[in-house]
Each structure stands twice: as C-alpha cells, then as structure tokens.
Known about the structure:
405 residues, alpha/beta, Rossmann fold, 5-stranded parallel β-sheet, 32% helix
Amino acid sequence: MATAELAGKHLVLGMTGGIACYKIAELTRLLTKAGATVQVVMTEAATQFITPVTMQALSGRPVYTSQWDARVPNNMAHIDLSREADAIVIAPASTDFLARLAHGMADDLLSTLCIARDCPLLVVPAMNRQMWQNPATQRNVAQLRADGIEVLGPDSGPQACGEIGDGRMLEAAATYEAIASFFAPKILSGRRLLLTAGPTFEPLDPVRGITNRSSGKMGFALARAAQQAGADVHLVAGPVALETPWGVFREDVQTAQQMHDAVMRTVADADIFIGVAAVADWRVDHVSDRKIKKTAERTLPSFSFVENPDILAAVARLSKPPFVVGFAAESDNLEVHGEEKRARKNVPLLIGNLGPQTFGLDDNEVILFEAGGATRLPRADKQTLARALITEIAKRLPPGISPAG
Ligand code: CTP
C-alpha cells in the first residue's frame, strides 16, 4: 500500500454487530496509515464484539454509539457526522442492518446517519451463508444496489459458525483495497489492459535455470493502479512471490516462450499492452531432462543458446496493435539507451529507469521516452509512481481508444 493514498479523505466507519468486528481493528489501521481520518460509529450490538475504547485508540478519535450523545453541542450527531464525510462505510454490515437500510429505517445513530447522508455509502456484508442466501437478504441487497449503494463482497469460505459458503466479510486488506479503488478516478473505465510482470525462468535441467533479476513489484503496482482506475486487467506474471492485486485476473507463466504465447493469445482483446517483465533474452536450445551431474573429470558443462521471442516488439508489429508501452532498466546512460530502445522496438512510449539500483526497492525514478522527447517523473514509491504512470498513459491513449473516445 502506498503512503498517504487516502490523504485528505474522511470516512465514517459504521460498525454493526457481528464477529467480523475484529477485522475492523485492522481495517482502521490500514485506513489511517493510508492518510484517511476515520470516525467510528458503533451500534449497541457492535460494542458487544469489540470495545469502543479499542476503536478509539486505533482511530485516534472519540467513538459515537448513541444518538443522544451529549458531546455533540446541537444534538444533531446524525447530521454533523456525515456532513464532513467523503463516504460512509458500514463494516461489518449485519443482515439486520442491511434490512433496515433497505427500508429506510432510522431508529439509532448509525441508521439515522445513513439516511441523512449526502455522501456515498459502502456496505461490507458479514453473515452466515444461510442468512446471506435467504431471499429476504438477497431482495434487500438488490434494493440497496438499486439505490446506488456500493456492496463490497461478501467473501466465500469457512465461517466463524463452522459452516462453509458465501457471506463472510472480506478480509481487512481486501476491504481496504475496495475502498481505495472506490476513491480512485476512473480514467481507464471500460479499457482492457494486458501487462507482463516479473522475470522469466529458463530451465537448464529439472533443478537449474537462468533468470533475470526482477521482483515484479512495479508491474503488480501498475496492475493494481489500472484496476483502481477502472480498467479490466489481465496480468501475465513470471515467477514472483507477490499477492495478486484485488480484482486483477492473473495468469502465471515460467518461460519467455510461455509469456509470449499467453500474450499473443489474448492481445487482440486489449486496448493497452504494457511490457514490464524482465524477459530472459536467451534459452538453452536443449533442456536436459535429467539433472546435469558433475563428472569425475570435472569437465564443465557447455550450453548453446537460442534467442527468445521479443514479446514487446511482436505486439508492436501487429497489424492492429493496442497502445504499447515498454519498460527498460538500464545500468548507465539511461537518456541515450531509453530513446534508442523505444525507437528500435517501435513503441509510442517507453518508461526507463536506472537499475539494478532499484531492483526490489519500493522507490523508483523514471523517465518517459516518446517521439516528442523525454519527461522525468519525480522519485516516488512504486504505488504512487504506478498511479502517476497510469495517469500519463491514459492521457496519451490515441483517439478511438481513449476513455473519452
Ligand atoms: N521485452 C520483451 N521480450 C523480450 C525482451 C524484452 O517483451 N524478449 C520487453 C520488456 O518487457 C521491456 C522491454 O522489452 O518492456 C525492454 O526490455 P529489455 O530487456 O531492456 O530489452 P532488450 O531488447 O532485451 O534490451 P537489452 O539489449 O538492453 O537487454
């Protein structure tokens, strides 16, 4: 998560009764770490699962539980609290609270706040699978959606009651991602992005291989930022130890040839292609099917190599290419190599950075190379940089595939 991703955002976090209340402690921490201010409001039932003292300590603000709170000078907590908010998030949202919301009830502070709001409302349901599947709940959820309320989740899997199925609350990290995504400007709405990330691994034998240094962090950050910007994202990833960004479709591959084939199979559907992967340029022409053993004479093995396909150049050569963006990490003379590589691969935009100094780090500094010249972006963490790059890419989409086109 980027620092200050939600800077300046003020959220009312409404908690209703349910065992998933424990997840809200972590969610509050994630939201405040991202720069948001969080005003917690709890129903009486929520206070049975986690104490207001805990939520006050985590949010750094007094918690409201009653509509008759003497701390509010004009006794209008239901109006005052939501007026400052950029959104109200109800998490966990119980079956009962969803029903009350759907029917416009206003019989406690939180329900009154929701009906008196002039900001978006997001609900994060949490309940037993039978309660979720009950036609009454499904009717209420459909009504809430029709009323313009965002419903985040629920998740599927083992539940606190011991049963397995739909209804449990999204994990705190996934809830955070959904909230951050809600606030991101939808500059790639309706666009389909295909991108490659991470290294490739070219086997020599069943236990050895050659690879490139790449953590995959930049590519995954771009996939996340594009998803948040409203794009439909297909991520083709080499071997990396990273979690799939929320809402992104991921396809795992090992070798350059597999990455090439995965891209070529789906590129016709893409509006934008970004090649972030550090693709191994060569593979051995014959992969040993047994482990290569040391010999008694200690003769060194020798390998002959063949060139891997250049995925970026192949996409750029298509008769109807998407908007193609390349990446390049150079050890020196970035200004010269960057523009030379962009022209050689015949792509409209190439993003260059100085590696290997940045490999695996969270910070990066890049230069955008395009026919009209080069532009340097300020140094930033990879998530912030990813958002800036997605903005730059959206601005450059040619008419016809631009969001406005
Ligand atoms: N790339 C690719 N397929 C390859 C090699 C590179 O798609 N076989 C893409 C990368 O994903 C990146 C860009 O091309 O977007 C530049 O990668 P880089 O390794 O710097 O390019 P090379 O052509 O291999 O240049 P160099 O001679 O510097 O290794």
